[in-house]
Amino acid sequence: MKKTRVQSSLCLPQTVSLLSCGHSVFRYRRKMRLPYFRQFVSLSLFVSVGVFLFLNSTFKQPISPKLEAFAPGKIGELCESDGGGQKRIMFIETSGEKCLRPRQACAIESAARTNPDMTVYVYMAKEMPPGRPEMDRGEGLERHCETMEILESFTNVYIIRDSLPKHLVDTPLEPLYFNGNMKNSQYALQHISDALRVALLYKHGGIYLDLDVVVLRSLRCLRNTAGHTFILGQSSIENGFMAFDRGHKLLKFFMRWMQRSYKPNERSVIGPNGFSRAFQMLCNHPSTVISDLAFDFKCHDNVNVRLHNKTAFHPITYFEQNRFYAENFDENELDTFNQSYSVHVYGSGHGAHVPETSLFAFMANQFCPSTYNLHLQGVYDF
What is the SS3 assignment for 149-204? Predict the structure, then answer.
């Protein structure tokens, strides 16, 4: 049976080649279907937007009162009156870098927001210090100069770029650094930070904070105090939060103890271990029997020191730090901070991943929103 070839009426074999014929047919069909395609896209978009709005209005839950109240000015204060100490909060950054990490900036922003009546000083080294820096890997470790712009927008924040070892001059720590003992240690970077915080507090008074904290409340009532935590059954007096008057005798005693007992090859010799040892010697109080309650100590030479319970500054301990980073945290976790002035966020300075539904992310969003919002905008990783 002979097959009959059907020729399109749009393409005459006498005038159009086979390729141009097929091309013409294609263009014609596309041109005929285009209006229907546009109508289909418009209808699809209309339906999608409608479904989104419906689901959003139907399933979006309002923020709970507990979450809403966990913010500066709403959380409720623990300070009932002014403690009378110097209205200074200080942070120290010893790396010699020009800019901060976002999590460091978060600590400073939270202090500035919750303590607008206090001046926040950020001491930043102008040069790279001796010693080996920590070889951390992970997230949130890169430095971004946008953080400096955020902090400089606060009227109570002052960035001081300086040669930090000069602050050891005229203290018992001056010979310890300038005779080379501390500079030649493999832990020089950590030891200089430990020494500087004590020297600056001794010279100026006020409150020292580590750069891995989140400040929740006013600190104006805290004076001549520190916090302690229990580590493996032993009470450790932490040096990441210290509030002392200018010239306080415990600080001078501690610096003299550092000078006599310094061991360059022990990382925490003049950190929490040393601070705890100096306190035990001056106050004649063994660490094993310090209770988990705030307590006022009357020490030698009429020295008064208050040790706060661990919930004041370290409500989540080093061994519980995963609670900061777990996804979809339970809002009842916030009850942990009912009696906390600040929170030491263990692991934040060492690259821990911070999911956006984690407790740490929520705290950052509430207490350092300017810093955290740049993360949400994709400027940097928090």
Answer: HHHHCCCCEEEEEECHHHHHCCCCCHHHHHCCCCCCCCCHHHHHHHHHHHHHHHHH
